[in-house]
Design a protein that fits this description.
The protein contains twelve helices and no strands. It has a domain at 216-325. The longest helix is centred in the middle third of the chain and has 49 residues, at 162-210. The chain starts with 10 loop residues before the first helix and ends in a 16-residue tail after the last helix. It is an all-alpha fold and 325 residues long. Helix 7 (135-156) packs across helix 8 (162-210). The radius of gyration is 22 Å and the shape is globular.
């Protein structure tokens, strides 16, 4: 974090940062369908305020922006969705503290995911206590109802050909059966993506503004080698013909796959930088490999291969290399 003894930021920047945090917290509560993506920015914004301005000043900005959002939420009766926004903020504190302690990216990510998951579980417990309803069960029920309504719509639509309707029905029935089973890994994946974005973007932004960053450049990041056993054990468990244990294995395999996609993307970024490709071409290749389903498989395979082959030849030095390398 920034030194507590340094000169305070300009008053205009203080108000600007407070307003940014207010918007990021309040707008998703006002209209989640339009501004819900801002919830994913809140951990990053929290981390940046704490890291760049120090705990004292950064904490005051966060608290002030949060209080303003709370006042607006109470005035417009949007307190419940506002709590979802607030649940994103503690993970930013965890990552800022990890940066201050000079934890590795993997260690900071683990703390961020743990705190974010704990915040969500606490929020679920609060909602369950107040409304006497399990929010997770309600979410699954709403999901099932949405798929059922989609089935009815397509069956009644005269514009859908019969052969297409057969494919749609099979796909929707498959979704209806599979989605509740893998929902734990989907929600965990959302947490992993949120924290990964906070770490990667925060590291880059800190370097852009200060010339220093808490971690090495993303292309040098590695997840612990021992994590490969998660993939191996999960794959073996997922091969069990049936039962709850097989579902656990499938969920663990999905989570592990996401983690190794992150490492695969770091390897991909490393070689794009090493080959010094033009920025426009790099951007095109990033879009292709991230948003194409086959590209995801390539990233996963590359991340796994890096564990045994050390494709970047940076096995240990990357932990101590500066971000400006």
């Amino acid at each position: 974090m920034a030194s507590e003894g340094q000169a305070g930021p300009e008053l205009g920047k203080v108000f600007q940062n407070i307003f940014l945090l207010f918007l990021a917290a309040f707008l998703p509560a006002l209209n989640f369908s339009v501004f819900g993506w801002l919830n994913g920015v809140l951990p990053l914004l929290t981390f940046m305020l704490l890291h760049m301005f120090g705990l004292n000043v950064g904490n005051k900005m966060i608290l002030t922006g949060g209080v303003l959002a709370l006042i607006a939420g109470l005035a417009l009766a949007r307190l419940e969705p506002l709590l979802i926004s607030f649940s994103m903020i503690p993970s930013g504190y965890a990552i800022a503290w990890s940066a201050h302690r000079q934890d590795s990216p993997a260690g900071a990510g683990l703390k961020g995911v743990t705190v974010l998951g704990g915040s969500w579980l606490l929020l679920l417990a609060v909602f369950a206590t107040i409304y006497k309803v399990n929010p997770y069960a309600g979410f699954l029920q709403a999901l099932d109802q949405g798929i059922a309504e989609a089935l009815v719509y397509y069956r009644q639509s005269a514009t859908v050909p019969a052969d297409t309707l057969v494919i749609l029905e099979a796909s929707l029935y498959q979704m209806k059966r599979v989605l509740p089973l893998i929902m734990p890994s989907i929600l965990t994946g959302v947490m992993l993506l949120t924290i990964w974005f906070t770490l990667a973007a925060g590291n880059r932004i800190a370097y852009q503004f200060t010339g220093n960053s808490p971690w090495p450049r993303y292309r040098l990041w590695q997840i612990p080698d021992k994590l490969v056993w998660l993939i191996i054990v999960a794959a073996l468990v997922a091969l069990i013909p049936s039962g709850q244990l097989r579902i656990v294995g499938i969920n663990a395999l999905i989570i592990g796959g996401i983690l190794y996609c992150f490492q695969g993307l770091a390897v991909f970024s490393f070689f794009l930088h090493k080959w010094n490709l033009p920025m426009l071409l790099r951007s095109f290749l990033y879009v292709m490999v991230i948003f194409q389903s086959f590209g995801t498989i390539i990233l996963f395979g590359t991340g796994l291969a890096d564990v045994w082959l050390d494709l970047r030849k940076i096995r240990k030095p990357a932990d101590t290399e500066s971000a400006d390398t």
